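Below is a filled-in request sheet from our internal design queue. Each sheet records the structural input a requester submitted and the sequence that came back. We keep these sheets so that new team members can see what a complete request looks like end to end.

REQUESTER: design group, bay 2
PRIORITY: normal
MODE: inverse folding
CHAIN LENGTH: 597
BACKBONE (tokenized):
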């Protein structure tokens, strides 16, 4: 058996994976490798919004802010541990300034400050952006540092299929070389999984089709999940997958549904009979973009209306070519009217206003084959971000010693989060994880466990049979129907039984060896997701980014559970009270005297 030996492995080539690899290198852990199924795939490199947001401590030079205040904003979303919220706030400045140093051109004002703006679930101006492709630029700048300066090896075409442990902790990973279809073994006392969320479980999704995740592999390794039912859903285009937040809503497009006979109707007229309320809620959808159970009678009524039209078999579109019926800027709220006027946004059509407000947002669609000035844009309410994920401590370590999970794969958020905090988390997570790995060096593991795991997997694949058919392609569509942002108890229970049956009979008979492992991963993640939903939401009711229905009736939230997070282990859940935001008011001299110089 050829064994590749490293001091640490990083899985994933998005902003989180590259950030972690660079942080390890800077901390002196240099015998590392980055494994990826596809270097140019993944969410960081292939998604965005009108001006994709990065959330960090305010740096405009004038706004009053501190880590404690930012931590409180993250913590107030509910279901989030205070130590993690504080760490994300405290580490946000070194993480952000590293990106600036590596060439991510965040806007600066005349006196060197970084101006900001308001984002979802936050009333401050901590948000910043370099436009629709913020995470792509982050990934590219970090990649340049990791590949060309640090000279860290990035092994492409490696689909990680198993995390291996030896009883004392992690000892490495097995990967399928997708070029040769052979299995390879990687020995390492520390493994960092930064492969993103299990986007594969939803059909209505804004994730790139290349984004799959590896949550099923992590579950197979024995990790616990945290807040795994908590996902963020929002309006997105479905042909070219893109978030329709911010500027796309603030220019007041027309919402149109089209029936089988081609008849159009502006369905929001029925939802908001009052024109002023209708236009103002469309505007508010810009920075209230995610569906929120708490806003179901406000701007989130738009998401419910879109879903209802599609459920009735009508196609739903945004139309930027002409104004909604009866539109008059004077009908907007003072906030909306002043926002647009203050930015010089005028124009006879939503597209004209989009060009004035954010020309880069319009250009994204043109670059991908859609002329918003002439074409309707097909839309749906789509899965966009997993606020939950794998349970870790504040340094990203799981219940399996030596296995770390960072970025969207980690369950660092709860019921709601400030927009852009996920991009900050990709960077702070790598810094915290690298600190732990550098400080606590684990001994190199014996190869025995890896040898056994590799032998077992090769025996399984020895009977592999190619088969063009797949019984699993319909699972994501069914999950989107009954367990997306609208969750129906009876449908979830039926689908969980179906997935359990698939797993019980799962065998190495598939389109390819790679798809055999991908579907296995998807089924494991989908099973854990539905188990969490069915155990949690009958207790908590509707909350976060989802409504819960039993026998056709929406169950209201029980707010007392906002102070808990949900831990899933072996299909069972428990509610764990969140930790408070930590404080330490010991005098400066105490910390000075502890310095080792």
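RETURNED SEQUENCE:
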């Amino acid at each position: 058996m050829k064994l590749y030996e490293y001091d640490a492995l990083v899985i994933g080539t998005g902003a989180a994976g590259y950030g972690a690899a660079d942080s390890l290198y800077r901390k002196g852990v240099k015998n590392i490798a980055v494994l990826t199924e596809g270097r140019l795939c993944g969410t960081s490199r292939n998604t965005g919004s009108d001006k994709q947001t990065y959330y960090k401590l305010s740096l405009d030079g004038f706004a009053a802010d501190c880590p404690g205040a930012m931590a409180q904003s993250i913590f107030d979303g509910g279901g989030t541990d205070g130590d993690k919220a504080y760490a994300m706030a405290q580490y946000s400045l070194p993480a952000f300034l590293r990106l600036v140093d590596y060439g991510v051109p965040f806007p600066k004002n005349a006196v060197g400050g970084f101006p900001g703006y308001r984002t979802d679930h936050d009333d401050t101006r901590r948000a910043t952006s370099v436009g629709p492709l913020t995470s792509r630029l982050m990934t590219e700048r970090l990649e340049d540092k990791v590949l060309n300066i640090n000279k860290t090896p990035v092994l492409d075409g490696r689909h990680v299929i198993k995390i291996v442990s030896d009883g004392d902790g992690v000892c490495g990973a097995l990967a399928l070389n997708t070029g040769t279809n052979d299995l390879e073994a990687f020995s390492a006392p520390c493994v960092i999984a930064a492969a993103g969320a299990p986007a594969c479980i939803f059909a209505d999704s804004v994730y790139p089709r290349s984004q799959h995740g590896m949550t099923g592999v992590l579950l197979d390794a024995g990790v616990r999940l945290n807040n795994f039912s908590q996902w963020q859903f929002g309006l997105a285009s479905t042909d070219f997958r893109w978030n329709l937040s911010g500027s796309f809503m603030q220019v007041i497009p027309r919402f149109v549904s089209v029936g089988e006979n081609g008849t159009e109707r502006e369905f929001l007229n029925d939802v908001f009979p009052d024109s002023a309320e209708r236009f103002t809620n469309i505007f508010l959808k810009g920075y209230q973009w995610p569906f929120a159970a708490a806003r179901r009678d406000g701007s989130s009524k738009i998401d419910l209306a879109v879903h209802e039209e599609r459920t009735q078999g009508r196609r739903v579109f945004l139309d930027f070519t002409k104004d909604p019926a009866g539109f008059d800027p004077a009908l907007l709220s003072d906030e909306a009217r002043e926002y647009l006027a203050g930015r010089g946004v005028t124009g006879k059509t939503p597209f004209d206003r989009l060009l004035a407000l954010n020309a880069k947002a319009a250009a994204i669609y043109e670059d991908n084959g859609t002329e918003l000035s002439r074409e309707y844009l097909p839309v749906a309410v789509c899965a966009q971000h997993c606020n939950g994920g794998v349970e870790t401590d504040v340094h990203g370590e799981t219940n399996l010693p030596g296995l770390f999970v960072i970025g969207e794969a980690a369950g660092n958020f709860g019921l709601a989060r400030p927009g852009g905090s996920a991009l900050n988390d990709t960077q702070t997570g790598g810094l915290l994880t690298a600190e732990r790995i550098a400080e606590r060096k684990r001994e190199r593991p014996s190869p025995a466990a890896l040898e056994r795991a590799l032998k077992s997997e090769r025996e399984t694949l020895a009977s592999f049979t190619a088969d063009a058919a797949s019984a699993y392609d319909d699972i994501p569509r069914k999950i989107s129907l009954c367990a997306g942002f609208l969750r129906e108890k009876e449908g979830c229970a039926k689908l969980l039984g179906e997935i359990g049956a698939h797993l019980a009979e799962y065998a190495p008979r598939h389109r390819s060896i790679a798809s055999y492992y991908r579907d296995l991963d998807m089924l494991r993640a989908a099973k854990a997701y539905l188990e969490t939903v069915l155990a949690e939401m009958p207790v908590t009711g509707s909350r976060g980014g989802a409504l819960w229905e039993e026998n056709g009736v929406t169950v209201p939230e029980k707010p007392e559970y906002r102070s808990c997070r949900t831990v899933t282990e072996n299909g069972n859940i428990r509610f764990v009270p969140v930790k408070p935001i930590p404080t330490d008011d010991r005098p400066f001299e105490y910390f000075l005297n502890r310095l080792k110089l």
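SHEET NOTES:
- The chain has a mean pLDDT of 95.
- Residues 170 and 402 are 5 Å apart (CA to CA).
FILED BY: M.R.
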